[in-house]
């Protein structure tokens, strides 16, 4: 399914129309492109994102190269999240896709200036619907620091269950952090009483 959305408001000319790979009621998802490297570089530089995702500082060129490499990888799908007026507001990905076991991981990052408007929840719901509605996934997982209250709230609201804690699983700023491990299984998604992305 593909539809068009403008990338930065109604004033944009036709050249900036972005083809959507997936859309829901309140966000669109466009396949991440190397031209999006500047957005990703900027968003990754935000101290909160850097802290919670344990991001290693990278040059713009390195971010671009990474996107290029990831595009070749069949095990993942990376998306730019676009708000209803077409503004790029964040990034969401379905990584580590294992089509035999039906498992994948979800990654999510919102631009600091676009947080708190429900875009993260909408994008997470959208990518979850993609994973269960178009791909044969059975189990999705997500991990975040146990003190990342916003992410814990977003994951819970999208139907994920915290199944455990990976103790001292990551090192950041000289300190070990526990990671909360969340999962959402297909039968649980089927039970969710909310419109699906394709109902938009
Ligand atoms: C986590 C993140 C994606 C959330 O983005 P967002 O745009 O703020 O998310 P949303 O607006 O969809 O939802 C945030 C929800 O968390 C709630 N929330 C925010 N801070 C909270 C807190 N301290 N305790 C409990 N709930 C909190 C908000 O109230 C909101 O719920 P509501 O709409 O019912 O009020 C964003 O903060 C981010 O990119 N963080 C850095 C990277 C990261 O942590 N990624 C997650 C890895 S899984």
Automatic annotation (TrEMBL):
Under Enzyme Commission nomenclature, its number is 2.3.-.-
Gene3D superfamilies from the entry? 3.40.630.30
Molecular function (GO) terms for this protein are: acyltransferase activity
Q: Which domain of life is it from?
A: Bacteria
Signal sequence interval, chain numbering: none
In the UniProt record, does the keyword Transcription occur?
no
Which enzyme type, at the first EC level?
A: transferase
Q: Which PROSITE patterns match?
A: GNAT
Q: What positions does the domain N-acetyltransferase occupy? A: 27-188
Going by the UniProt record, its keywords in alphabetical order are: Acyltransferase, Transferase
- Organism, by scientific name, is Streptomyces galilaeus
This protein is called GNAT family N-acetyltransferase
* Pfam families, sorted: Acetyltransf_3
């Amino acid at each position: 399914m593909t539809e068009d959305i403008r990338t930065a408001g109604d004033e944009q000319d036709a050249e900036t129309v972005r083809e959507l790979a997936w859309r829901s009621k309140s966000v669109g998802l466009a396949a991440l492109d190397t031209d999006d490297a500047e957005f990703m570089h900027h968003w990754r530089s935000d101290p909160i994102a850097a802290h919670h995702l344990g991001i290693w500082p990278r040059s713009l060129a390195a971010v671009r190269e990474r996107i290029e490499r990831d595009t070749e990888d069949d095990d993942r799908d990376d998306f730019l999240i676009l708000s209803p007026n077409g503004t790029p507001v964040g990034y969401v990905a379905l990584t580590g896709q294992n089509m035999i076991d039906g498992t994948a991981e979800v990654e999510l990052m919102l631009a600091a200036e676009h947080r708190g408007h429900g875009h993260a929840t909408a994008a997470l719901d959208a990518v979850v619907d993609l994973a269960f509605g178009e791909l044969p996934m059975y189990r999705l997982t997500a991990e975040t620091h146990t003190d990342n209250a916003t992410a814990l709230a977003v994951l819970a609201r999208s139907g994920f269950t915290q199944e455990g804690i990976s103790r001292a699983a990551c090192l950041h700023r000289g300190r070990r952090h526990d990671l909360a491990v969340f999962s959402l299984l297909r039968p649980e998604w089927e039970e969710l009483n909310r419109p699906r992305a394709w109902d938009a």
